[in-house]
């Protein structure tokens, strides 16, 4: 049975970013106090209150929502918009295991949640994963809202992923990514982890590794402008929805061009990671000589990641099945790079 996180909020629109962050730890159920409902019988790993505790009725509503889980010893995190002594006492009175200010940077919040869930501490891979996830969250949030991309967060995410890839056990990274319940985050972290391991396997120097991993981190940034109803749809997209989804490479490309802060290969990867060497890809129908090696690597990782992703509506392929599918694509992919990719995903 899956173990979920429960987010209780009185501002559901503003809490969407928080919901996506919490999905790092598993499926995130949301209770809107303006439309109260029980969250179901799925065991909770963590309860998070993003509620104005100065409102007495809201306090009682939160207390009712967490009552059953508190009896089972589930930790409760209260995010306070006002850290006055009165509200801190109120949070403790309803059973908070920890109290933090609302609006913490993503990385700090994820690290604090990690300490609540694992008081004995994380291993290095999990620390890198938290840092990478936080950077990804800040990047996608800024892109969705039309703000300048957070360069420090992006660079921190790239560094964390490359350091995680220094560990030859790719499986540990994949297991943590598969736990992420947000499809976009899961996919981007999968592709970036695979690309980082691929560049390491090819013995790229550090700067070249940063370039490849950076291209993978940013390749789907255009999806930040695609409606969540389409991104998270469980099942086949309609023709209209598919047309909207297929706009994400061009949207990402234009976004990075406006920033004027990224290497040409990284910008190319946002627009061209769905191109194939035989000219049958999109959005431009590029052919072999028009597609850089960095883009070719990201494309291989992108397709492989999509095949092994764990989603409620889709059984993942095994590594062998996914690699065989890539081989079966023939002239669409770079055969030499595909051979070099094999020991990354099928070691031994």
TrEMBL record:
Residues 162-348 form the HD-GYP domain. The keyword Isomerase does not apply. Signal peptide: none annotated. One of its GO terms (molecular function) is hydrolase activity. SMART domains: HDc. SUPFAM superfamilies: CheY-like, HD-domain/PDEase-like. Pfam families: HD_5. Its EC number is 3.1.4.-. Keywords: Hydrolase. It comes from the Bacteria. The keyword Hydrolase applies. NCBIfam families: HDIG (TIGR00277). This is HD-GYP domain-containing protein. It comes from Bosea eneae.
């Amino acid at each position: 049975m899956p173990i979920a996180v429960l987010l209780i909020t009185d501002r559901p629109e503003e809490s969407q970013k928080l919901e996506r962050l919490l999905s790092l730890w598993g499926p995130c159920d949301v209770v809107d106090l303006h439309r109260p409902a029980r969250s179901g019988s799925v065991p909770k790993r963590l309860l998070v209150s993003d509620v104005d505790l100065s409102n007495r009725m809201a306090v009682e509503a939160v207390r009712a929502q967490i009552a059953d889980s508190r009896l089972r010893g589930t930790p409760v995190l209260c995010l306070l918009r006002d850290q006055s002594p009165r509200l801190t006492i109120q949070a403790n009175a309803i059973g908070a295991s920890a109290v933090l200010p609302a609006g913490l940077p993503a990385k700090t919040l994820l690290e604090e949640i990690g300490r609540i869930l694992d008081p004995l501490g994380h291993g290095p891979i999990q620390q890198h994963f938290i840092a990478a996830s936080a950077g990804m969250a800040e990047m996608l949030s800024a892109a969705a809202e039309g703000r300048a991309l957070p360069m420090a967060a992006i660079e921190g995410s790239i560094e964390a992923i490359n350091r995680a890839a220094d560990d030859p056990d790719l499986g540990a990274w994949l297991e943590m990514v598969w736990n992420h319940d947000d499809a976009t985050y899961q996919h981007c972290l999968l592709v970036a982890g695979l690309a980082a391991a691929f560049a390491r396997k090819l013995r790229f120097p550090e700067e070249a590794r940063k370039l490849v991993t950076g291209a993978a981190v940013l390749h789907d940034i255009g999806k930040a402008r695609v409606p969540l109803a389409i991104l998270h749809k469980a099942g086949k997209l309609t023709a209209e929805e598919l047309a909207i989804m297929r706009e994400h490479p061009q949207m990402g490309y234009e976004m990075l061009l406006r920033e004027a802060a990224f290497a040409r290969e990284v910008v190319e990867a946002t627009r061209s990671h769905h191109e194939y060497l035989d000219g049958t890809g999109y959005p431009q129908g590029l052919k072999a000589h028009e597609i850089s090696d960095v883009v070719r690597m990201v494309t291989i990782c992108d397709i492989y990641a999509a095949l092994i992703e764990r989603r409620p509506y889709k059984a993942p392929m095994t590594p062998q099945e996914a690699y065989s599918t890539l081989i079966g694509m023939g002239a669409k992919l770079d055969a030499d790079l595909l051979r070099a990719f094999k020991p990354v995903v099928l070691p031994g």
